[in-house]
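User: quick one - fold this with S-adenosylmethionine bound?
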Amino acid sequence: MQWTTFFESLAKLEPDDEFVSGRPGGLSPELAGQVADDIATKLNLNACDTLLDYGSGTGVITRALATRVSSTTAADMTKAVVNRGIEGGGDIEWVVLGNDNPDLSCSFTKLLSYYNAQSFTTHTEVREHIEVLCKSVAPGGTVMFGDIPDRERSNQWKSGERGREENRTTWMGRLQKRDIDLERNQRDLAAFTDRLKGLGIEAPPEFGKPHPGFDRDIVTRMFRELGGEVTIVTQPIEFPNAHTSVDYVVHFNE
Ligand SMILES: C[S@@+](CC[C@H](N)C(=O)[O-])C[C@H]1O[C@@H](n2cnc3c(N)ncnc32)[C@H](O)[C@@H]1O
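Assistant: Sure. Structure tokens for the protein plus S-adenosylmethionine:
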């Protein structure tokens, strides 16, 4: 099972929109709103912006961003996902990547790719993705490559019983003080896995396994080589994956 087939099956068979993004805990409108606020701040979105959400899924976050900018395009490589996004409404232009093939180059002042890198295994795949993103941003624009599995944070996160005990007393001890529910991810994952079974959807083998993460220096260099100035921002800690992901906010010169 490939990731695109997985998302296609979810878009066709999963009745609840909250789960179509493949997030084990779902993406409620409230959470989408919180994520959108965070993205709008990091991208410094304003009413003059032209926004591209690349790998938008069904556009739950895109819709919450579209009201803050002048025009919004959502692009996803899975047709069934786009169809579901169109049904969801909003002032958004939709693109099926690989089918529609419009020229997106240098067209957008702000560009988002959020929660897309979980399906990449190599830095080469990340590089190819980054090249596409950088081609689409206008001079002076900003790219946010967000919710990216992070090697540094993943190495600090230990799974399993023994890991949980260690996490409690060492690195995760810091998180515990900030009221993080350490068992939440495991509960969400178990419930989502049951849900998939009920729908007859087989997940890709990597689904639910901890992602080893990408190297911050390598990813930063990739953007730099393409002319971007990179700021790495940690996710707000109460967000899903906050303990294993970071955001890259990348500015390009005029
Ligand atoms: C986990 S969902 C995330 C959707 C949305 N950005 C969000 O945060 O809710 C991943 C989506 O990315 C799309 N996708 C995965 N890899 C992609 C790629 N290389 N280019 C474009 N879309 C991609 C999939 O079709 C799927 O709809």
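One thing worth noting: Residues 90 and 222 are 34 Å apart (CA to CA).
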